[in-house]
Every structure is written in structure tokens, then in C-alpha cells.
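From the methods appendix. Each design record in this collection lists the discretized structure first, followed by the designed amino acid sequence. Records were kept in a plain field format so they could be parsed without special tools. The example shown here is representative of the layout used throughout.

RECORD:
C-ALPHA CELLS (182 positions):
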């Protein structure tokens, strides 16, 4: 196991012919999130959830190698809303930035945008505590994808899959874990 503080050393090892191993992988991790607008307007199924900016979330530096093949293994989402009736959400992952409708609008991507879709992560299970809700995956297989050439980032669009009543300025924080594969 390569320590987190030495993950970029892996690239040097990967490129050195005398110790090249085709099974060599690197653990990768990235996080992103946003704070909702200061309102409590309920979401309907398939509404976009944003901070009011019409851009997808960026998961920066998901891989130390631009254009790398990745395998997403796990994801969690933390909400600052300890809701009595937690929501259900999907995170759509893309390899390029996405232009979105405003917060609380129906998600309707263009044909060219949806072609950049890498996969969907369903936050279909949750634990609620006194100050937050932690959403996780009830079941999830590997999500294999390749980052866009020259890019080390993933982009995500959070969509409610059922009616959901937020709190004002609710925070969403999403963490993705995976591996860079050769």
C-alpha cells in the first residue's frame, strides 16, 4: 500500500521500465460539495441540486495521471440536514464540465452533454444523526471509466430522485474513492 502523502511517487515508479508492473494501481480520492441557496423550496423528482451556480461540481485531482483509467469503488454524501424524511439522490458523473439549469429545476441535459456521462452513483441508503445525514450506497459494483484526455478531474451533477424538503443553506459534501488502473 502506498501512503497517501506519497501517491505522486507512484507515477515515477509506473514509468520506470526496470520495475514496471502492469498490475500497479494507485488509490485515488477526491471530494466536492456545495451549499444550497438560502431557501426551503422543496425539490421534485429529477430536480438539479446546486449552489445556485449553473455548473457541475468538480472532483479535482481524482487521478495523478491525466486521462487515466479509473475504477470508482465507493462514495458517500454528507448533508447538514438531519431530516426526519431523508431524500434519495443520484450523482451523475461526467468527464467534462456540464452546464446546468438553475437549482431546483428539472434536469434536462443536452444530447452532447449526456454523451459525456461516465456513470451514475445512487445514494440509496442513509444514516441520520443529530446534526447531519450520511448517504451511502446500499449496493454498488465497480464503476470503470476513463478521464478525458489531459484531465485529472471528474464532474458531478446531483439530482433528487424523489421529493425532498431541504433546509436553508444546506451543505452537501461528496467523497469518492477509487483506484487508478493501468
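DESIGN:
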Amino acid at each position: 500500500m502506498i501512503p497517501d502523502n506519497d501517491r505522486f511517487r507512484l507515477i515515477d515508479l509506473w514509468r520506470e521500465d526496470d520495475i514496471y508492473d502492469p498490475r500497479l494501481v494507485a488509490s485515488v480520492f477526491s471530494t466536492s460539495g456545495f451549499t444550497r441557496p438560502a431557501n426551503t423550496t422543496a425539490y421534485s423528482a429529477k430536480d438539479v441540486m446546486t449552489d445556485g451556480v449553473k455548473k457541475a461540481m468538480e472532483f479535482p485531482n481524482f487521478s495523478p495521471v491525466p486521462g487515466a483509467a479509473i475504477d470508482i469503488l465507493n462514495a458517500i454524501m454528507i448533508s447538514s440536514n438531519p431530516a426526519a424524511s431523508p431524500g434519495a439522490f443520484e450523482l451523475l458523473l461526467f468527464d467534462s464540465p456540464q452546464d446546468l439549469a438553475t437549482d431546483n429545476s428539472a434536469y434536462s441535459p443536452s444530447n452532447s452533454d449526456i454523451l459525456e456521462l461516465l456513470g451514475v452513483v445512487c445514494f440509496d441508503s442513509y444514516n441520520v444523526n443529530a446534526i447531519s445525514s450520511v448517504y451511502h450506497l446500499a449496493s454498488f459494483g465497480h464503476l470503470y471509466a476513463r478521464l478525458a484526455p489531459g484531465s485529472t478531474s471528474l464532474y458531478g451533477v446531483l439530482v433528487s430522485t424523489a421529493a425532498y424538503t431541504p433546509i436553508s443553506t444546506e451543505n452537501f459534501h461528496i467523497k469518492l474513492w477509487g483506484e487508478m488502473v493501468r
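APPENDIX NOTE: Residues 9-15 form the longest helix (7 residues).
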